[in-house]
TrEMBL record:
Pfam families: GAF (PF01590), STAS (PF01740). Transmembrane segments: none annotated. Residues 28-107 form the STAS domain. This is Anti-anti-sigma factor. It comes from the Bacteria. Gene3D superfamilies: 3.30.450.40, STAS domain. It comes from Asanoa hainanensis. PROSITE patterns: STAS (PS50801).
Length: 318
């Protein structure tokens, strides 16, 4: 075997009993062997190392991989969305045989091999906080974060765990998905109330499909929101970008409008509405965070909205 040229940087290497994973300085991760449950932490470390490199495309070479566990798939999906959030790509190469079948069965094959077009307009990170990668909590059909100590040891965010859990997404239906989005929004951002709206295919209006913290008066008033209505969610839908309003009483969108009274009666002083991007990049819904006072949790809200968009693309019956 030829030795590396003198002075050439050596790749980072992680080894377990079943796999060897390397990461080069140009962001190429190579997996050799079985990426099973025992390899989860090593793969997570390799993906994080690759994402820290200043490369526009992180390549994960699976040519020599012989097995891919659901936990490994979840780490790869998490890495994909971290890269996408930063305007970069994570792409798998060398997909073959059982590896391809695992990815196909989890609905991630097109996403991770570059065959899916997934633009993310308007959602960008504020500040240096790095989005988290996610490994499955090991449960199906239940929206439960992993143990906080384990999550923190891997650098994970328990609040958005279910939304990037491959096992959960493979079995979730729309009500379960909406519940997971609401739970993530509440636990990760400190919002006092949250609502999720779906874009109706017929007329393009927004309809509330899930909420937490609102009474009947609010739900009746915002039961249907048209794209030109004077609301933050309508503006987020129309402009396809986050609309962040620190004080609804001072913002021109609500000046002299009934929507202002409806918000204040519900206890909302600030509202932050994020479009949820569909496969084409056009919004398929809007996620709105409500607070009794202005909030600085912009990075957390962006994380939740990004994860919710990804989950809704996977759960096709959203």
């Amino acid at each position: 075997m030829a030795s590396p040229r003198e002075g050439a940087p050596r790749p980072h290497v992680w080894r377990t009993a079943t796999v060897e994973i390397t990461c080069t300085d140009d962001g190429v991760v190579t997996v050799v062997g079985d990426a099973d449950i025992a390899a989860e932490t090593a793969l997570l470390a390799a993906i994080r190392t690759a994402l820290a490199k200043p490369t526009p495309v992180v390549v994960v070479d699976l040519t020599a991989a012989t097995f891919l566990d659901a936990r490994a798939v979840s780490v790869l999906v998490g890495g994909f969305w971290v890269a996408a959030h930063e305007g970069r790509q994570l792409r798998l190469t060398g997909v073959h045989g059982v590896i391809g079948r695992v990815l196909d069965a989890t609905g991630t094959l097109a996403l991770l091999t570059g065959d899916a077009v997934v633009p993310l307009p308007g959602i960008r990170r504020a500040g240096p906080h790095l989005p988290t990668l996610r490994a499955p909590a090991g449960t199906r059909r239940r929206v439960e974060p992993p143990d906080d100590r384990r999550a923190l040891s891997l650098g994970l965010d328990p609040g958005v765990s279910a939304l990037t859990d491959v096992d959960f997404l493979a079995t979730a239906d729309r009500p379960l998905l909406i519940g997971a989005v609401l739970e993530a929004a509440l636990t990760s951002t400190g919002a006092t109330a949250v609502d999720v709206q779906r874009v109706e295919p017929g007329d393009g209006s927004l309809h509330i499909v899930g909420h937490h913290g609102f009474g009947r008066a609010f739900l009746d008033f915002f039961a249907q929101v048209d794209v030109d209505d004077p609301t933050a969610c309508a503006a987020a839908l129309r402009l396809n970008r986050p609309i962040e309003i620190d004080d609804v009483t001072r913002h021109p969108i609500f000046a002299g409008r009934g929507s202002l009274a409806a918000l204040r009666d519900a206890g909302t002083r600030s509202v932050y509405s994020y479009p949820l991007a569909g496969p084409s990049g056009a919004p398929i819904g809007v996620l709105s965070f409500h607070y009794a006072r202005p909030s600085a949790e912009r990075a957390s809200r962006s994380d939740v909205a990004l994860a919710a968009s990804a989950a809704m693309r996977v759960v096709v019956n959203y």
